[in-house]
Structure formats: structure tokens, C-alpha cells
Amino acid sequence: MPFAQTLLDSLLRDSPLIIGPLVLVVAATLMLWPLDLLVKRTGKRKWAGFTLVILVLVLLLTTGLGSWIPLTPDGSGFSAMFRMDGLTRGYQILCILAAIVTVLLSQGQLNALKEQTVEYYVLILLTLTGALLLCGATDLVSVFFSLELMALGLYILVAYLRNQERGVEAGMKYFLLGAFSSGILLYGISLLYAASGGTTTNLAELHDQLALASPNSSLLVFSGVLMVLIGFAFKVAAVPFHMWSPDAYEGAPTPITAFMSVAPKAAALAAFLRVFGTAFQGVRPDWTPVLGFMAGASMIVGNVAALRQQSLKRLLAYSSIAHVGYMLLGILATDRQGGSQAIWLYMLTYLLMQSGAFAVVIHLQGCNEGERIDDLRGLGRRRPFLAFAMMVFMLSLAGIPPLIGFFSKFYLFALAIREGYYLLTALALLTSAVGAYYYLNVVNLMYFKEPGANEVPVLSRSMALIIAGACLLILLGTCFGPWLMYFTAKITWI
């Protein structure tokens, strides 16, 4: 007990306010289960509103946009294992926004399936806790802990619809492969700890220790860095560690698929930037060729495999792999601030595009459509608003100007050219053209094919607001250019 009290006192002295948003999320998570005992079975949907209130409060704490809510201060604490700065704050905002959109998207499907439970919202908040921690982790131990906390909730959420065999199978595959990748990551961390002389796992200190490592330990350093790279590649679904992604995306409830495509990736990319931009910056020759190969392979495999998909969710899964390949260009950049800003802007626009596309899929699933690409046939005649919105999302994902998806790609590719990655940039442009084919194929089906037999129901008010809001933001993206660049400039290395 005295040791525990001493440890607690030490942690509390280390700027506890920097984890204010995390404390609020954890407190809400712990409150939900006891309070659920007081709610009747027919009132479970009330937890959606409670969760949304908590998420909005966390967003205000993180951004400081509310005049009556103080901004979470910058600083480092908890034995230098967590840091709140521009990088942390920016990527935390993406994770929180993704969670808010997920809760909103979930209501129609959960109500229709009668699957409203408190556990669903607890798992979303648990996953968000791990993601928020991961965005600011500055020690390999806190990175590993955060990754596992985030993954634990995702494993269960993928298999949440336990009466559907496809979802349970996808959750089991995801869990087994995730556990395997976690073992590789942990072994890599142990090798790097040994290479540092058994002195540290802190990212900044590890950078200095690896620079001083003896030639005899070069193989140890290379092996450790490579294993950590493999662990991170699995978390962001980069080729060749992408096998879990299509099955998990297809088997999971569609709102969770939308969540997985943004929040965990944003958090993992933030950790990717911090780990490889700080601890491994001095050993760049050890990992840049491997990461460059992963980036190029992800662009090729993701786009080419998407050409053959008949399921819309699997198409978006392979598309997500391709987009990860593009974002890895920002990790390769020696300009760490420019790389973090380019990836953040890309993830923000990706959040808008994915949220809108999955909102359309969720609505179509309500009428037993939407799973297959052919279900979109003639949507332009049956529901013009839905078809127009889906067209905007597809064209923006393809990077067609003047939509906002074009500008985020342009910003990222321009950075890659400045860094001298001409071959990878050319490959990114070519594979983007391949991607445009299957995105435009969706548009072709909606507007130039005969409609199916099933009638598409009228949009609910909440779903219409989500789709219209995402569509409007994408269309007006050019007008918000200065505003977006202002917030992007806040994503800095401090």
C-alpha cells in the first residue's frame, strides 16, 4: 500500500490536467454499467444520448472551443509516458469526431435489430480511451498498452452481432491475427530495450541510446525496429499485414466499420509519426526502404483488389488499404511537422467521405440492400438525393477536383515530391487513376443502369442530416481552405 500511494502521488504531481479528457471518458465508461441497472430494457437507447453528451464535452475539453470549458493544457507527464501537444490534440479530435459519428450512425440499425445495449456504448468509449492515450504516448510501454486497450474493444465490437456467423468469424480472425501482431510488437520493444543497454523505453531517450549503440548491436536494433514496424503495419492495415481488414469490415456492424476505418487508424498513425519520427529518426536507413515497400504495395494491392469486389463494404475496405498507402508517404517524410500535418488533413477529409458513404450503406441495409454494389443500380431514379450524395463521396475519395479529397491528396503528394520520393508519388498517381475506375463504376450503376425491384424507404431526419452535412462539407471544402489550413498548422511537433 505505501508503494501504491507513493506511485499515485508521483503521477498526480505530473500534470494530471493533461489527461482531463481521458479521465472524463473513463469515468463515463465506469458509470454506464451501474447506472444501466436502473434503466428498463425498453429504455436502453437513452445511453446513446448520454454517450453523445460525454463525447461532446470531451471534444470541447480537447479543443477549448467552449468559453466555459478550459482548454486541456500542453505538457508532458506521468513519468514522461504521455504528452499533450499539437500532434496529440489534432489526432484526438479526429478520434472523438469519429466516435460521435459512429453513435449517430448506429441508432437506426441497433433499433431495427433490437440490439440496443449499454455494452455497445461502453465498448466504443473503451476503444476511444485507448485511441486517445495512443495519440499522446511517448514511451514504447505506453504505446503498447494503448494499442492493446484500443484493440480490446474493437475485437468485441466487430463480433457484436453475435447471432450473425459472419460477424463472429470476422471477430475471431481479427482477434487471432491481432494477438499475433501484438506479440511481434512486444518482442520488438524488448529487443530495443536490450539494444539501449536495458536503460529506457522512452522515445526521446531511445533515440539517443540507439545513436550510441555499438556495431555489435546493429542487428539487434534492426530486428527490433522491423518488428515494431510490423506491429504498426498491422494496426493500420498496410500490405502485407492487411489480411484481416476486408473480413473485419464486412463482418462488423456497418457503423463500427465506419469507426474502424477512421479512429483506430488516426490514433495508430499519430503513434507511427511519434515513434518513427522521434525514437527511430537516427536509424532511418533501417526502416525507410521497408516502409516505402509497404506504402507502394498498399497502393497497388488495395486498388487492384477493390476492382474485383462485389460487396460495397469490402470495396471500401480495400480502398482504405490504398489510402493508408498514400498516408504512409507522410511518415516517410524527413519533415516531421509537414508529414504530421499532411496526414492529419488527409484523415480529416477521409472522415467526412467515409462517414457519408457508410451512412448511405446503412440506410440501404434497412431495406435489405446496400451489401452488394449492384444494389445501387438505378438509385439516381429512386432516391436522387441519396445518389447525388453517394456520387460526391465516391468522386471525393477518387480525388476528383475541386472536391476536398483532391486537395488533401495534392497536399500529401506535394510533400512526397519535395522529399524526393518521385517513384512512390508516380505510383500513387497511377493507382489513384485505378481507384477512380471502381469509384466511377459506382456512379455508373446509380445513374446509367436500370433500378432494382426493391423500393428505398424515405431517409430518417438524423440520417439525412449526417449525409447532407458530410456532402455539404465536401462540396464547400475549397471555401474552408484557409480555416482548414489554420487548424492543420496546429498539428506541430513541440
**Coarse structural class:** mainly alpha
Largest sheet: 2 strands, antiparallel
Poorly predicted ranges: 6-12
User: Which strand order spans the largest sheet, edge to edge or round the barrel?
Assistant: 1-2
Average pLDDT rating: 84
Number of strands: 2
Measured on Cα atoms, how large is the radius of gyration?
Answer: 22 Å
Summary of the model, kept short:
By secondary structure, the protein is mainly alpha-helical.
How are the elements arranged and paired?
Elements: H1 2-13, H2 20-36, H3 46-63, E1 75-77, E2 82-84, H4 86-113, H5 118-136, H6 140-158, H7 165-195, H8 203-211, H9 218-236, H10 244-251, H11 254-260, H12 263-279, H13 284-306, H14 312-332, H15 336-365, H16 379-382, H17 384-398, H18 404-418, H19 422-448, H20 461-475, H21 481-488
Antiparallel strand pairs: 1-2
Structural features, described:
The chain has 21 helices and 2 strands. The longest helix has 31 residues, at 165-195. It is mainly alpha-helical and 494 residues long. A two-stranded antiparallel ribbon has the order 1-2. It has a domain at 299-494.
